[in-house]
Structure formats: structure tokens, C-alpha cells
Write a structure and sequence with these properties.
Structural class: alpha/beta
CATH superfamily of the largest domain: Periplasmic binding protein-like II
CATH topology of the largest domain: D-Maltodextrin-Binding Protein, domain 2
Strand order of the largest sheet: 16-21-20-17-18-19
Number of domains: 5
Radius of gyration: 27 Å
Number of helices: 17
Length: 530
């Protein structure tokens, strides 16, 4: 039976259009496929720290995780959103023929404002903002974010004169306004207008299928643009534009690139041609040209201008340096583990006989068991757990999970009402989940508790000028309160933690998703909005 190729995509209208285009082309080649929308990082799990894999793309990270997790076979991206360095194990499998690479201006009314000194233009792109201000230095450029439909609606509801969009995005879903103006003078983002398919490096079947969708000329041109971006080391933090295209008559690749200061006050441009097939140093030559004319110094000027910290926050759990860097320079962050875990030595007699019904409610419980025993020494018939992360870890390190619940109460209800189980073995910490134990015992189920690890409070005094504290569990709040005051904003990873925080803090905010990344995004949105 032929393998069904699972196509991962974000769930926006544009992303789904692009995924369906790939599906259509695969179908024409005789491959079966299905669309798998990926909503959030909270639904996806890996058994190792996310950032060890080098996943940094704001718009691609969730799909990268889903692929490494085995939930999808390929991921479809707008190539301009893809980091120039892919995560380990993931490769570019194909680039489809490029669509319109230009930026366009969607007007609110007429073009008369071009000659006015105080016109207002909207865009969420550093590059578009810098290029607009370079050409129209007296204009005001405001931030505009969201999917294309949301941005168009914001423009309609505003008093702005216009907003800048990628032409391809609007054209693909058929919503380009009739009066939109082509900005031929604005050099596009590297790879703008191109759709890229990512796949696992080890999956030869998928790679062979995707190779047939590859458009060679597009692949060459966007490859040059992205290499130019990589060599300048700008990523998403500097306004960089790049465009390469093949002149059909001369078979030469024409390249033009630009680096700007964020306020548009300075610009370094480069243009160069190379014969197709002898273009391998084109990106390097152009990047060197920009660097030799002060490119690095220009980028440093922007960084120095943003180095003033206006808000300070503290995380009660250690974060990676890459996680910290998702916050702007205006938000300073310090961190420390306010909860320490110590694994106990579980007596060998616990594992002497097969344990019929085992309950594990956290990843720490899994690690504690494996700290005392090897996988081969574990004899578990049925494993019940809480949370998808714990489930994934158990399946990777121990064995199949019989049932997973969202929380301890749901698990207790399932065991009591949906099974005939009369006895369970619960691998827990010294801090028990009272609701779980109480519910089972109330339903005459015997709970054999095995204290697999200790959860210890490890508080420290934080600075008075810290505005907000990041919490990941009720225990973290308990630890924090040993040394600190409650005159801060409590940023909480989930509702359970927030419920505890509201007992002590006047200001409590809850992340949309139960992940450190979502919590950091909450912090960023709060302080940037105020």
C-alpha cells in the first residue's frame, strides 16, 4: 500500500492555500496525501529540549517540531519565513516555481498622500519600514501584524493612508485590491514569493517525491538571496532585501541587494551579475561588498540604539539563551530554578513483580523511575499518565501508554468510572496531588504510593525593580513567596498556576498555551503594549 504523505501547514487561509497547492501537484504525480494543520507548540512534544535542535523560526518552529515528532512527513512554508539554517535532521526538499516577488501598496483612498509630509503607512516588516522611510523620510510608519485578512481589515478600520503587503500572499487567495500599487523600487525579502517544502533528511521516499516538484531556476535564485542574508548575519533583526532573477536572453543572473538602518536614514546597495552555472560566489561577493562599505557598523548602530532596558522580569525556571533572546532588548530578564528536583533511589523490591496498573503524573516521575531502573527491568502492564509531554516521554523511554488524561482529576475519574481497576501504583513526589488521591480513595481504589523524587523549594531574593515574574507551577509560587513580595505582575503558564497566583497577586496574566515560548510572548506583548 502506498504511503499517504502527511502535509503539515499553519492553519491560516494563505498557509492552507499553499499546502493544497503542494497536495494538488503531488496528486498529479500519483502520490496520496492529506493536509495536517498544526496549531500550537503546546500540542507537540519532543523527548529532548526544543532549542538543542536549533529551531528558531517564528513561523516555522511548530511545523519543525511536528516533523521531528513524526506527526507530519513534510512542512509547507513561505520560504521568506524560513531561517537560513534549518534544524538538525530537516532539509529543503523542494522549492516551487516562484510567484510574484514584489511588494505592493494597498491604498486607503488615493495616491495623493505621496507628496504630503505627514502621511501614515502600515507594515510589520523592518525591511519595508526602512525602505519606505529611506524614500519618504517625513512619513510615519506604524506597526501592522496578523494574517493578510486581519491586516486588510485593520487598514480598512484605520485612518492610515495605506499598508504594504507581499503581492503573492494577496494574489494567491484572490484578495488583491484592484487599486493596489506595485512598489518596483522596493527590493523584496530574500525568497519572497517562493513556496518551500521541508522534509526529514532520512526519509528517502518523501525526498524522491518532493524532488519532482522542484523548480530549478527558482531554487538557484532564492538560494543566492538566502545565502546573501546568511552572510550578512541579519536574520530578522536587520532590514535586508535581496532579489536574484535570470535574464532569459543572456542566461545571466541579475542580483540586487540592500541593507538599511532601521530608521531608513542609511542604505548600502549592491548590484551584480553572474553567468548561470558560474554564480556560486555571487552571494558572497555581494555580501562582502556591503560589509566592506560599513554594513556591520550600520547594524551595530541599530543594536546600540535599542540597548536601553525599560522593563525587568524574572523567570522562576531556568531558560535557554535562545529563549531569552525572543524578548526585545528593552525587556531585561533574569532566571533561576525556584523548584529543585532530587530523584530518590526506588527500592528494587518495588519492581520485583509485574505492576499491573501504574500511574505517572509528570515527566519528573518518568525520569526518576529511569534513574533507578533500566527499561528492561520495568514490568508495567498498564500505564496511566497525565499530559501529552509525559505520554511522549513514557512511550519513547518505557513503553506504551494505556490512557492519558489532561489533568490528575480527569485521570482519577477515568480510572474510577471507566475501568474495573481496584489498585494502582502511583510514582509520585513528596508533594502529592491531593485531588487525585482523594478521588481514588473515595471510590475504594487502593493507591500504593512510591515516592520516586522530592520536589524542593529553592527561593531567592529578586531585585526590587523587577516588574513581572514568570511562574510555571503552584509550587513555584510557594517558593517565590518565601523571599519576595507580591507587588509584581504574575505571568502564569496555565490556569492552575494562575488560580494559585490570584490568591496573592493583584495582577495576574495567563499564557495562551502551556509553554515557555507562549509565556515569553505574553510578557513581550504586555510590555510592548504599555
Amino acid at each position: 500500500m502506498q504511503k499517504i504523505i502527511r502535509i503539515g501547514t499553519r492553519d491560516s487561509q494563505l498557509a492552507l492555500w499553499q499546502a493544497n497547492k503542494v497536495r494538488k501537484e503531488l496528486t498529479e504525480l500519483g502520490y496520496d496525501s492529506e493536509i495536517v494543520p498544526i496549531k500550537s507548540v503546546g500540542d507537540i512534544v519532543l523527548d529532548k529540549p526544543l532549542y538543542e535542535l536549533g529551531i528558531t523560526g517564528v513561523f516555522t518552529k511548530n511545523l519543525d517540531i511536528a516533523m521531528l515528532n513524526g506527526d507530519i512527513d513534510i512542512a509547507v512554508h513561505s520560504l521568506k519565513d524560513v531561517p537560513t539554517v534549518l534544524p538538525e535532521g530537516i532539509v529543503q526538499a523542494a522549492v516551487l516555481k516562484r510567484a510574484n516577488y514584489n511588494d505592493i501598496l494597498v491604498l486607503k483612498d488615493t495616491e495623493e498622500f505621496f507628496g504630503q509630509p505627514n502621511a501614515t503607512i502600515a507594515t510589520g516588516s523592518l525591511r519595508r519600514k526602512a525602505m519606505w522611510l529611506n524614500r519618504y523620510p517625513t512619513h510615519n510608519v506604524v506597526d501592522l501584524r496578523g494574517n493578510v485578512n486581519t491586516r486588510l481589515q485593520k487598514l480598512d478600520d484605520s485612518d492610515w493612508n495605506g499598508a504594504v503587503f507581499a503581492a503573492a500572499g494577496l494574489e494567491r487567495i484572490g484578495i488583491r485590491p484592484a487599486g493596489a500599487v506595485n512598489l518596483s523600487w522596493m527590493i523584496p525579502a530574500p525568497a519572497q514569493g517562493a513556496i518551500m517544502i521541508a522534509a526529514l533528511e532520512k526519509d528517502n521516499y518523501i525526498l524522491d517525491a518532493c524532488e519532482q516538484l522542484n523548480h530549478h531556476e527558482t531554487k538557484v535564485c532564492v538560494g543566492i538571496e538566502r545565502e546573501f542574508l546568511r552572510l550578512l548575519e541579519g536574520g530578522c533583526t536587520a532590514p535586508i532585501g535581496a532579489l536574484a532573477y535570470v535574464d532569459a536572453k543572456t542566461e545571466e543572473i541579475n542580483f540586487k541587494g540592500v541593507l538599511l538602518k532601521k530608521d531608513g536614514s542609511k542604505k548600502i546597495s549592491v548590484t551584480k551579475t553572474a553567468v548561470l552555472g558560474k554564480h556560486h560566489l555571487l552571494a558572497k561577493d555581494c555580501a562582502d561588498y556591503v560589509i566592506n562599505r560599513g554594513g556591520k557598523e550600520l547594524m551595530l548602530e541599530d543594536l546600540e540604539g535599542e540597548s536601553i532596558v525599560t522593563h525587568k522580569v524574572f523567570s522562576t525556571k531556568k531558560l535557554s539563551e535562545i529563549q531569552k533572546k525572543t524578548l526585545p532588548n528593552t525587556i531585561g530578564i533574569e532566571d533561576s530554578d525556584f523548584i529543585k528536583i532530587r530523584f530518590n533511589r526506588i527500592p528494587p523490591k518495588v519492581m520485583k513483580n509485574e505492576l499491573e496498573n501504574v500511574v505517572i503524573t509528570s515527566q519528573n516521575g518518568v525520569e526518576a523511575i529511569l534513574n533507578s531502573f533500566t527499561k528492561n527491568e520495568l514490568k508495567f502492564k498498564n500505564i496511566f499518565c497525565v499530559g501529552r509531554r509525559t505520554k511522549k516521554l513514557i512511550e519513547n523511554r518505557i513503553g506504551a501508554v494505556t490512557y492519558v488524561a489532561k489533568n490528575a482529576l480527569k485521570l482519577a475519574e477515568y480510572i474510577s468510572k471507566k475501568t474495573n481497576i481496584k489498585e494502582v501504583t502511583y510514582f509520585c513526589s513528596n508533594l502529592r496531588m491531593d485531588v487525585f488521591l482523594t478521588y481514588l480513595k473515595a471510590n475504594d481504589i487502593v493507591v500504593n504510593e512510591v515516592e520516586a523524587y522530592k520536589t524542593m523549594l529553592s527561593s531567592e531574593k529578586i531585585a526590587d525593580d523587577v516588574s513581572g515574574v514568570l511562574f510555571y507551577s503552584p509550587s513555584g509560587i510557594e517558593s517565590y513567596l518565601q523571599e519576595n513580595s507580591t507587588d509584581k505582575i504574575a505571568f502564569c503558564i496555565g490556569e492552575t498556576t494562575a488560580k494559585e497566583a490570584r490568591k496573592h497577586f493583584d495582577k495576574v496574566q495567563v499564557a495562551n498555551l502551556p509553554s515557555a515560548e507562549s509565556l515569553l510572548e505574553l510578557v513581550k506583548s504586555h510590555f510592548l503594549a504599555n
